[in-house]
């Protein structure tokens, strides 16, 4: 397991670093190697201690954060959240067989609102991201969207090999966008 610990707005502390590394090494029992873990520890206004952890392993990304008055409590809280997500992921993955198929790449662009409001012929693009879209079932896409805490997820349907979008509705349910012919 590769662990990276970053300190923001606080001095680097070896006891805190070793505490985080020790706690993070215990979650590898839930997921196959290789695992990359990044922990960002920060203090805001000298009273809010925040711990954020991102785990990347075997095609999944799990993020969680916790904010308390004590850094050790924040680390414990965020790792409890990560552990719950990993347990849920492991239980769900046992019920699904892995999808096989081609992986595609999709680009996402962020456009400035002013360029659209003022009627410019070309929209002003702020940022463009390119990311892989791997084949999966709708259930796997919903699970991945929940793990990443996103409002929508673009994925390739494992059976039809079409690009689909699953999204969270305002009523708490999920919606699926499927392209037509």
Write the layout of secondary structure elements.
Layout lengths: L1 E7 L5 H12 L9 E10 L3 E10 L2 E9 L2 H25 L8 E8 L1 H5 L7 E9 L1 E2 L1 H11 L3 E6 L5 E6 L5 E4 L4
Parallel strand pairs: 1-2, 7-8
Antiparallel strand pairs: 2-3, 3-4, 5-6, 8-9, 9-10
Helix pairs in contact: 1-2
Q: Would you kindly provide a written description of the structure presented here, covering whatever features stand out?
A:
This protein has 181 residues and is α+β, with helices and mostly antiparallel strands. It has two domains: 2-95, Double Stranded RNA Binding Domain (2-Layer Sandwich); 104-177, Sigma 54 modulation/S30EA ribosomal protein, C-terminal domain (SHC Adaptor Protein), CATH 3.30.505. Helices cover 29% and strands 39% of the residues. The protein has four helices and ten strands. It has a four-stranded mixed beta sheet with strand order 1-2-3-4. The chain has a four-stranded mixed beta sheet with strand order 7-8-9-10. It has a two-stranded antiparallel sheet with strand order 5-6. Helix 1 links the parallel strand 1 (2-8) and strand 2. Helix 1 runs parallel beside helix 2. The longest helix has 25 residues, at 71-95. It is globular and about 60 Å long. The relative contact order is 0.11.
């Amino acid at each position: 397991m590769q662990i990276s610990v970053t300190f923001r707005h606080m001095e680097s502390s070896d006891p805190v670093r070793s505490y985080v590394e020790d706690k993070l090494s215990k979650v590898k029992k839930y997921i196959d190697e290789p695992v990359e873990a990044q922990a960002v520890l920060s203090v805001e206004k000298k009273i809010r201690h925040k711990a954020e952890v991102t785990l990347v392993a075997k095609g999944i990304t799990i993020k969680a954060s916790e904010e308390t008055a004590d850094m050790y409590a924040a680390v414990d809280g965020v790792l409890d959240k990560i552990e719950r997500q990993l347990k849920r992921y492991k239980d769900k993955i046992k019920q699904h067989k892995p999808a096989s198929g081609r992986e595609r790449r999709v680009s996402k662009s962020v456009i400035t609102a002013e360029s659209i409001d003022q009627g410019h012929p070309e929209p002003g693009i702020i940022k463009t991201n390119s990311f892989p879209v791997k084949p999966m079932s709708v259930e796997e896409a919903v699970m991945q969207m929940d793990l990443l805490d996103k409002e929508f997820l673009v994925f390739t349907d494992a059976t039809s090999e079409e690009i689909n979008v699953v999204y969270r509705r305002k009523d708490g349910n999920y919606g699926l966008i499927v392209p037509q012919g």
